[in-house]
Amino acid sequence: MRRRRTDWAAACLAACLTLPVPGVAQASALHDTLEHVLELAVTPEAIWHSRQWLNAMEPRLARFVPDPAERQHLLRNIHQEAQLAGLAPGIVLAVIQVESAFKSDAVSSAGAQGLMQVMPFWVAELGRPADDLFDPRLNLRYGCTILAHYLAVEGGDLTRALARYNGSRGQTWYPERVLQAWTRQWWVGQ
What we know:
By secondary structure, the protein is mainly α. The protein has helices spanning 2-17, 27-39, 44-61, 68-85, 89-100, 121-126, 136-153, 158-166, 173-186.
């Protein structure tokens, strides 16, 4: 059963990794992306909510990322990748805070890499040896997709999904840290 789930996760991640990343897309992929983007109806309300979120998060991220331009760029990427994966961007911020303290060059004692501390076996599993997990945008794509997969596997149970993400399945210390970071630092009340 574990192998089948890994295969499914790899297929999902592979599909998400084929989504174009600005600056990396080839001509035909760029054409397809532009057509897709033009077909999407982005409502004024969605644009307004996105801007409100970015404005609320920008000063909160300042203690971790002092450079304003880098902070804005990172927040836009986090928001976009979280939305693509169907995750709350605040949860992604909390995971990054706990995992790497927003250091894109972080490496854990277990070998996890980048902002969201993605394990290199995912690159091997997908057969994508050129993927650089220290690239913040790509690391966010991997991390958000993996977390969304675990959330689906766990039937929407965020605590269990976070424990799987961290490799501490059956324990609650990691999910508690992430949820605490979320409620203290990244929560935006409605």
